[in-house]
Amino acid sequence: MTDPLDPSATAPTVATGPVAPSTPDVTLFGDGGLDWRPVSPKLATARFVVLGCVAVLPLLGALALAIFVSAWLWLAVAFVVVVVGWVAWVIGRQVPMISWAETAEELVIRKGRLFRTVVSVPYGRLQFVDVQSGPLARKFGMATVELHTASPESGGQIPGLPTEVAEQLRERLAARGESQRAGL
Amino acid sequence: MTDTPESTAPPEPHDGGQPWQRLHPLSPLLRGGIAFVAVLAYVLSQQLDTIFGAEREDPTFGHLWWAVLAVVVVLLLIVAGAWVSWRFSRFRLTPTLIELRTGFVFRQHRQVRFDRIQAVDIGRPLLARLFGLSEVVVQSAGGKDSNLKLSYLTDAAAQRMREELIELARHSDEEAPHRRAAGDAAYAGSSQTTTLTQPADDHATQVLAVPNSRIVQSILYSGPALTFLLAAPALVVSLVLGAPGMVAWLGPMTLAIGGGLLKRLTKEANFQLLHEGDRLRIRHGLTDIRTTTVPLHRIQAIEVSQSLPWRFPGWWRIQVNVAGVGGSDDDDTENVLLPVGRMDEALRVLTLVRLDLPEEAAVAAMTGEGPHGGFVTASERAKPFDPLSWRRRGYAALPDEVVTRRGVLWRSVQVVPHARIQSLTISQGPWERRRGVASVKLVSTPGPVGPAVEHLDVEEALRLLDEQVVRSSEARRLAARPA
Hints:
- The complex is a heterodimer of chains A (184) and B (483).
- With 184 residues, chain A is an alpha+beta fold.
- Chain A has a domain at 43-94.
- Chain A has helices at residues 42-68, 74-94, 135-139, 163-179, and strands at 37-38, 99-102, 106-111, 116-122, 128-132, 142-148, 157-162.
- Chain A has a four-stranded antiparallel sheet, with no helix packed on it. In chain A, strands 5-6-7 form a three-stranded antiparallel sheet.
- In chain A, a hairpin with an 8-residue loop joins strand 6 and strand 7.
- The longest helix of chain A is centred in the N-terminal third of the chain and has 27 residues, at 42-68.
- Chain B is 39% helix and 26% strand.
- Chain B contains twelve helices and 21 strands.
- In chain B, the strands form four sheets. Chain B has a seven-stranded antiparallel sheet with strand order 7-6-5-11-10-9-8, with helices on both faces. Chain B has a seven-stranded antiparallel sheet with strand order 14-13-12-18-17-16-15, sandwiched between helices. In chain B, strands 1-2-3-4 form a four-stranded antiparallel sheet.
- In chain B, a hairpin with a 4-residue loop joins strand 17 (401-406) and strand 18 (411-417).
- In chain B, helix 7 (223-241) runs antiparallel to helix 8.
- The longest helix of chain B has 26 residues, at 27-52.
- The chains are: A alpha+beta (184), B alpha+beta (483).
- Chain B: Residues 86-164, 276-350, 390-466 form the YdbS-like PH domain.
């Protein structure tokens, strides 16, 4: 590489220069020596809000039916409550498991508890980086960083980053993507 | 209107581009108008008898001449529309890109930069072939609808255009060496040796041609063909016996499968693979002869596969991922380098695309199992997931590429150059976690080839991810360095 990394754009936690295979390894569980960073816990709150909005109609509908039509329909109410409770439980367990780490060569995103995935996107493969935030996410001061490579299935997504972290990450990724860019 | 169509276009800076050129005057008619004319002619020929025949039964109720006038006006309108469409379609080459303007009411201006050209095809649909015309399709890496089509030019002009475009694309690649592909000996080597002013077909050497008899056989040796051979007699029997219930579902099924087989036959017939400097040329088609040119260094991933019925004749099929080409189911033959071939032919194509792929590694990948040939395979822990193929499922990291292989009954092998891996994914479900295995996916650009190693031991999967990141970035760095 001829271009040095822009020092102002480099995070203090990231080692520069090529990585020897003996540097901290990516692991499915635990930190393995990498600086895994969690997403904002407010992401769970935001998802609870969405869940609440989605659940309120079926719940009211089932309640109305149970009260005015047949007592048997209390079963439907119970069903809705169980489903909502289960989804809430899954959200509560999943959000803390979303974490990401930057190494010298790649951005790694880990997700999921029961079904685990690790996505590794090399900086040199980045085509562009999106930072999005909807009204709800903005209310919580969060944004989603989406990575796009030349393949639509390979992009990673980090939801629920605090806005300033997301902006900094986008700038770092842009700088590294530029300096390590390779053709298709 | 004056004779300078440029006056209708926004002013262009004088960038040394070539003057605007027009397509062949017959193009608009061939593109659609001719269908209308044919319908009209058919209707007229049906009516001639009733109009001028013995039993005069005037369908126009005495307004015959008005009807004739209307027909003439419609015809004139079609011709005028075609003429306007032709007047307003023009293309030109500038030093950096090719641009095409079309449309009178809804104007479209499409341009493709030379350094974004992935492949240049020539297509010859049946009707155009009658008039000696071809279309040039410029494929760029911009998703589904990002092709620029010059339809139609005369055969010779189309050939010249393709040669020129490929040459320009290659030049712009050389001017931007950081775009150059990694470890691509074929590309780096030939860029100095090939002359820059290449005439048309003469330099191409034929790598192989697949006899049509083998294409027919290979299509018969497939699941759909077997179903067809069972369903067609069943359909006939149920027609004869008069079982409408059976016909209702057998009929459409037979037609659909038969249509699919026929389509495959018309696409793969007359298959020829030619090699010319740093690019491959694929020619195929029964009625619609297509010529696709793929620069070797634009190939992102290669797959060699063999279905169960093809085991017995020992046939293999080779498909590739090229950014921007294929992807949709409709034209997936553009990605086929070898529709059906013997082992030696498959190896010849493989080593042509990946010059540095050792043959023994390729053979081990195609037919072998276990660690022979440098393969890291799934262990016994993967047995519940792959009772048959766990010994075969695995990968080998060669100096320039990763080779993944899978399948015992349906064998397939994928080859991806290190520098071409877009990203890596490891996934593990609950059942996989209990067995201590995980699946790795090496993501390539969209296309038929999806390299992946499933159910590796967790430690091996993580090691593959860690090491591959280093290997890939090394390869990209090497590629970025000007040679």
